[in-house]
Input
Amino acid sequence: MKIRLLFLAVLLLTGLQSFAQYVGKAKDFAEFTKRPLLVVLPEIKDGSDIKSVVKMKEVIKSSFSGFWTLQKQISFLSQAEFKAMKKNKKKEAFAVVSFPTVHVAKGSFTPNGPRSMGSPTQFKYETTASFDVNLMLMGLSEDALSNDWIYSHPFATDYPTEGNMASTLLLAQNIVVKGAKESEEISFPKEAKENASKLKNLTLLIDKAKLGSNVTEQEIKAAYGLPFKVVETSVVDDAILNKTPGFAYVYMLPNSAGGKNLQLQLVLDTDKSQVISVSMPATFRVGNIRGKEIKEGNLKDYVSYIKN
Output
């Protein structure tokens, strides 16, 4: 079944897990790979740093041109121009990738006043938190115009770096190709079990900015036990952009309902951005690992798939 934006909104508002949704039918993914690509760029928000937003648009454009290989023909529209396509009687068939921002409000129901004998308790909904979620949505144009998508993917940052954008596109591209071949739901843990043995032949590039502040290199050696390097973000980005073989890196995939602090950590290879291993956040199992930083528990998770 396709992802409807209403279903996505329910996931966001109820706090259910929504890291990345890829439940489209195989025929939809197969059709997606055959069509020219239409990229719907992010909107410039009121009060946003326009230079930052313009830079993000440039990164998106250059990343699609350099790393998206499923379609050779790529065109770009604004969110408003895409919505205006609904009025066109003759609609061309596109594969659509859109970058909207969704404002999420989380809350709970509480009793509205004291309970009266013989009367049902009245409840009111109170908002406890709100935040913006940056998404990448993918779908077929005839369905996407009605907010009907086959894949959604949240971003960890408002304005991704070139390396982050490239790895996001490569990861999504891998999922689209697999979705075109498999009718069952794609699973990151399943991918990890199939590919984890590759870790032994790769050097893990650990982004210093993502490493927990109290984690030492000695502790990394003890928890991970395989070749690694602690490096600057720019080094990781260069390895991704150049598709440098022989390395792996940690990609953070946030939970769109829980916010940026609750993240799924994927270990991807720099050559093809295939899922090599994964570390699930605490919500999925016992343990104080939220995923925003790389900690000892995450490092142990990466190598655990080799043993399983």
